């Protein structure tokens, strides 16, 4: 993990009342590094949205979501931020504001470039999705 030492080395304030359990387990240094991290999550089906929720609650510097695929009825059973009225809308567009509500200290962005899809589809073996 690459961390910008200029940020991680500062005395960035950590809200101890919000992150008390994490501080106890991880310590201040790990929390400083985490609070200096920018995270990208590609894919917001059941597992991706669970990871997005946990990363947002962990207190990273920023969280970027990418999943332009339209939500389907089948997604409602595993993606707990989706509602029936979201079917047909891009998953990242409807999920981002709901993930952002979890932690005011973690800004949530949407990455709209198809570049990641092209790169990832070249890397994955055929037949794997």
From TrEMBL:
Gene3D superfamilies, per the entry: NAD(P)-binding Rossmann-like Domain
From the UniProt record, which GO molecular function terms apply?
Answer: SUMO activating enzyme activity
Q: Which domain of life is it from?
A: Eukaryota
Domain THIF-type NAD/FAD binding fold, chain residue ranges per copy: 19-110
Any one Pfam family here would be ThiF
Any one GO biological process: protein sumoylation
GO CC annotation terms, alphabetical: cytoplasm; SUMO activating enzyme complex
Q: What is the protein's name according to its record?
A: THIF-type NAD/FAD binding fold domain-containing protein
Query: What species is given as this protein's source?
Result: Neurospora tetraspora
């Amino acid at each position: 993990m690459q961390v910008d030492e200029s940020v991680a080395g500062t005395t960035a304030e950590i809200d101890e009342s919000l992150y008390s359990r994490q501080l106890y387990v991880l310590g201040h240094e790990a929390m400083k590094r985490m609070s200096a991290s920018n995270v990208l999550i590609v894919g917001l089906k059941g597992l991706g949205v669970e990871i997005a929720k946990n990363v947002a609650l962990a207190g990273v510097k920023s969280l970027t979501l990418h999943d332009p695929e339209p939500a389907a009825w089948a997604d409602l059973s595993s993606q707990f931020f989706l509602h029936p009225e979201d079917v047909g809308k891009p998953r990242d567009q409807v999920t981002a504001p709901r993930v952002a509500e979890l932690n005011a200290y973690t800004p949530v962005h949407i990455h709209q470039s198809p570049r990641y899809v092209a790169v990832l589809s070249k890397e994955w073996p055929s037949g794997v999705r």
